[in-house]
Amino acid sequence: MEINEGDDDEFGFSRNYFLAKELGGSAKKSTRKLSDIDLVDEQELRTAVANIEPKHEKEIEELMSSYKTMYPRWVFEIRCGFGLLMYGFGSKKALIEDFASTALTEYSVFVINGYLHSINMKQVLIALAELVWDQLRTKRKNPSGNLSRGQQPFNSRSMDDLLAFLDEPLAEENDGFICIVVHNIDGPGLRDSETQQILARLASCSRIRIVASIDHVNAPLLWDKKMVHTQFNWCWYHVPTFAAYKVEGMFFPLILANGNTGQSAKTAALVLLSLTPNAQSVFRVLAEYQLSHPDEEGMPVENLYTTCRERFLASSQVTLNSHLTEFKDHELVKTRRHSDGQDCLYIPLTAEALEKLLLEIS
Amino acid sequence: MTATKAGDSPSTAPESSANDHIQPFYLLHKASTSRNSGRKSAVARRIDLSPSKSSTSTSTNPQFDPHKAFQSVWSKIDSAIKDVLRDVNTNVFNEIHSWVRQSFLAVTSSGVPTFAEATKSFPILNHATSKQLFTGLVLIKNMEFVDDLLTFEELGLFLKSHACHVANLSSLDLSTKNGVGGCLRSLLRQFLTVTLDAADISILASWYREFGNHNSPVVIIVEDMERCSRSVLSDFILILSEWVVKIPMILIMGVTTLDAPKTVLPSHVLQQLLPSKFTLGSPAERMDAVVEAALVRWCSGFSIGHKVAVFLRNYFLNHDGTLTSFIRALKIACAQHFSIEPLSSVLGLLAEEDSEGERLLALSSGMAAQVDSNLASCLTELKRSQKCWGIVVMCLYEAGKYNKVQLLDLLCEALDPDIYNSIASDTHTRSGKGFEISSSSNHSMARQYLQKDGPISQAIEKVRDLPASSLSQLLKSWENLAVDVLEINVKVKELQPMIKLEEGKSLKQDFTDLAKRHTSRTAANIKESKTINEKAATLLANLVRDFMRPIECIPFHEIACFKDVEKLQSALIGDPRRRIQVDLLEFHEFLRCKCCSRSCNIPLQSMPDTSIMYTLAQEHGDLINLHDWFQSFKTIVTNPSSKGKRKGKQSPLPKKRKETNEHENKSESSIQARLCRAVTELQITGLIRMPSKRRPDFVQRVAFGL
After folding, report:
1. Which residues contact B220 (CB under 8 A, 6 or more apart)?
2. Does the CA dihedral B353-B356-B358-B361 come out positive or negative?
3. Cβ of A214 under 8 Å from any chain B Cβ?
4. Element (DSSP H or E) covering residue A238
5. CB burial string A91-130: b at 16+ within 10 A, e below
6. Are A57 and B6 in contact (CB under 8 A)?
7. Given phi > 0 = left and psi -120 to 50 = alpha, else beta, which region is A56?
């Protein structure tokens, strides 16, 4: 597991070697295009991704069950008030959930899927507060209820109040805290600093304990010292599982999904459809010019303006410019210098994609 | 997801979890009902009975629950630490308090407005100076605010206990997002203990008048002034100063430099402040106090081994530099100790039954029932020896103070069993030969084993050079330290009369020939005073030899002493950047499969796809051409026999295509799919970045080296 100094040097060396090679001459730098590969259709690719044969199933399984011996220690540390932070290569979702459902049965366990793109922390807090309240009610079982729900229902309270409710001191030590499992606390839905602040405050609440996993190598940069030392209170565990990131990777685009042309033409169509008919027509003028003059660098701005005036699409240079700005913002149109020094406009799409696009917006 | 899970859990689990994967959050399970009805001890027993736990025979007794033991031991350490930190701050706190009182009198001297006046929503203006806000700038000597969070919390409590209304605000409250309304709301929540949607300071004014609160000042503490939003802080200060006539508010702000207000606030806001300055104790001072309380005075029964101490010192010096992290590291060590060491729960008993004076008695009688007497006597011995050790370390520290020796450095050396063993064995052989250990030879011998410029020898050396007055102070402090242990106390007392004599002499001399003081000191006189110093130094050296037995040299120290430095380090410092790369490149260390047992540097077909891809990525610079990467990957996964010979240079479309078109196509798509997933996984780990628009055929490598 330990890498000695020699290996460090080796990695450094190999990096320098290949960097030097890359810089050495631009001729040597590979200029092959992705489009040279005979890429399969996106649909087919997705089915194939779903059917990838797993490797090393047995070994992975053994590795996962070898971590079972750690469970008592993990429970102990959670009870001592630490947060557990799992890292290492491989999906840790199954491992943590197995831990939670076998070793943490006496505590309620609440799961947050950080790998999803949108997570509403307020909803999370409300759900947690309701859970805590539910627990308190069932435990005391006295109908007289000195335990009033507070003045308002949880979903109309502020974040601060919810956190304050979760931070109320426990009647007995270690009595009925809730364990939150955060898969990918460094995930896209939780990555912003505000959410991390809320998570940190949540983790420091007396009724809450946290078990989280990270996958990104730079995840610790999300936290400052206050969060690490006084709020999350992490105990790190290196638990590589080598299990496939099936769910976590679900929302990532496939790199070979033939994206470049198809994708941008599709987004271009979407953008164009949201623009005014006049703007669409201006774009059409440009596109038709580009299709009929495939060898030119693009359409000179002057040229475009006169054509648009003739067709009553733009009354002045100003209106045309506002359309062009819109196009440039969405990267539908780019400018480049013509060989005679004039500024030209062009659409960064292939001829076929452009034809398809024109059909779509007509 | 794995077979283990499917085997262990009921068959319904996979179906329900399939849906759960796309829920942002969900409840996995509720607390099992049995524990709600059970008492705490029942919980402990239940855990012990669970099969996964490597339970020892003793752990069935609830008294031996390691968790309870941890709680009682740690709460002792924790309260000891808090006490000393409070002591460090006492002077400053008192100073602040008296300043708060004075300011309050000054504010209220101009007359208290009537209730109606005070609760009007517009402020009254008598004269310009009444708008000034008394502001205490508390100078923090740390670069990090973490260590002072507790200080400000304590300051708040301290002032509260002295009849002030206190609210603590942090930079989070004074952020642009919350605005000035946010911090007013926070104030109202803290003072009125209700949450109101309307953030109006007049509510605070009426609260202050209504409930007989108006005999106390209102103190607002801003912990980290420099991290607040400038505009929000300025607005906040302006509002406070408008209202200061009606509500006697006093502001306290934590700053790292005294120039901070000038740089953060505009001049018209600065004019509203009447600043006073206070200084908190330095980190080194606090560190020494904490080390003394937690590790040297054996208050809790928990202690650490030499390697752990060295690790903690290095962690403090090189890694983090905050006291908070040091204490946290200690807490992790303590928790790990109780979870690893089965007998450690005895310490919990020890901590619970501990009442000063009757310690030993309680220990032997209380535990005799549960622990066999042999162990009990060993523990008693351990305790006694630790006590002596602590006293000697403190004596050394008292001497070392004159040389600015840090207690943590001293501790590391004092815990080193090697040094002690070499001294002890040496004395043993010498005395066996009937060699009379003269003081000087003993001293030089001790020095020989101590690190030459180590803190212990520095401290002893310093004693030789101390002037008489300091020496007598030092001896007094030694006497105080050793008041409980007779053996040490007697030795110290032997020196006392000599020093008094000496002191008297020199004093007399000082009076008689004051004028010629520097020149008239005869050689004999110097020599005499030197001998006293010499004796004190020898005494210290002897104490080191006789009593400073590091805990690791005592039998049964494992009960109290945590030594597993690797475990502590891995729990304390995660290193994902390095570790995840190592996981990928040396996956064999973890999977231990037969198929990939050869060196990991040559990618093999059987390796995990992501490992193959990452190994291949090592051959590229900052940018990886996707096409090349794909070809190399394909070569490896399609040619089981090839050992990377034809890597990367092969045409993707062989002639066979026509015959086995479909099969080929299928495998082609599966290879592309595997590459896609491997790239996605590398992206999740943050090791590569997706192609940019500018360079659609290249992915970017992010991490280099380990």
Report:
1. B166, B167, B169, B187, B240, B249, B250, B251, B252
2. positive
3. yes
4. strand A234-238
5. bbbbbbbbbbbebbbbbbbbbbbbbbeebebeebbbbbbb
6. no
7. left
DSSP A40: P
- Supply A25's token pair: 């001459």
Task: Tell me whether residues B320 and A93 touch, CB distance under 8 A.
Answer: no
Single out the residue of B468, B426, B466, B467 nearest to residue B447, CA to CA.
B426
Q: Can you give the C-alpha Rg of chain A in angstroms?
A: 29
A226: nearest CA partner in chain B: B146
User: Whole-angstrom distance between the N-terminal and C-terminal Cα of chain A?
Assistant: 61
Long-range contacts formed by B545-548: CB under 8 A, 24+ apart: B545/B423, B545/B424, B545/B427, B545/B442, B545/B446, B547/B388, B547/B389, B547/B391, B547/B392, B547/B487, B547/B488, B548/B388, B548/B389, B548/B392, B548/B393, B548/B414, B548/B420
CA distance A291 to A285: 10
How far apart CA B395 and CA B491 sit, in angstroms, is 13
Query: Closest Cα partner for A232 from A199, A191, A194, A273?
Result: A199
Query: Coil, helix or strand for A106?
Result: coil
Alpha-carbon gap, residue A149 to B86, rounded angstroms: 37
**Signed CA dihedral, B96, B100, B101, B102: sign only:** positive
Gyration radius (Cα) of chain B, Å: 35
List of domains in chain B: 63-87+287-354+378-424+451-505+527-573 (no CATH), 111-281 (3.40.50.300), 576-638+668-701 (1.10.10)
Domains and CATH numbers, chain A: 57-137+155-238 (3.40.50.300), 260-361 (1.10.10.10)
Retrieve residue B482's tokens.
């050793």
Cα separation, B264 vs B226, in Å, equals 7
Cα–Cα separations (whole angstroms), residue B187 to A203, B66, B229, B234: 23, 42, 17, 16
Of A269, A278, A294, A270, nearest in space to A358 by CA: A269
| Residue pair B266/B234 in contact by the 8 Å Cβ criterion | yes
List phi, psi (to 5°) of A49. -60, -40
Distance from CA of B204 to the nearest CA of A (A): 19
CA nearest B145: which of B223, B253, B262, B257?
A: B223
CA distance A88 to chain B (A): 5
Binary contact (A72, B71; C-beta < 8 A): no
- Interface confidence (ipTM) of the complex: 0.79
Kind and range of the H or E run holding B504? helix B486-512
B577/A107 Cβ within 8 A: no
SS3 category, A47 = helix
Count of helix runs (H) and strand runs (E) in chain B: 32, 11
Decide if B440 touches A, using CB distance below 8 A: no
Which candidate from A1, A37, A138 shows the least CB-CB separation from B589? A1
**pLDDT tens for chain A, residues 1 to 362:** 444 444 555 555 666 666 666 665 444 566 777 767 777 777 788 888 888 888 888 899 999 999 999 999 999 999 999 999 999 999 999 999 999 999 999 899 999 999 988 889 999 999 999 998 888 887 765 444 455 555 567 888 888 888 988 888 876 655 678 999 999 999 988 988 889 999 999 999 988 999 999 999 999 999 988 888 889 999 999 999 999 998 888 888 888 875 544 456 667 777 788 888 888 899 999 999 988 888 888 888 888 999 999 988 888 889 898 888 888 887 788 888 877 778 888 888 878 778 888 888 77
Instruction: Give the Å distances, CA to CA, from B182 to B166, B187, B244, B311, B660.
Output: 17, 9, 19, 43, 70
Q: Is B39 exposed, middle or buried (0-12, 13-18, 19+ CB in 10 A)?
A: exposed
B64: β partners: none
Question: Would you state the torsion angle of the CA atoms of residues B419, B423, B429, B431, taken in this order, to the nearest 10 degrees?
Answer: -170
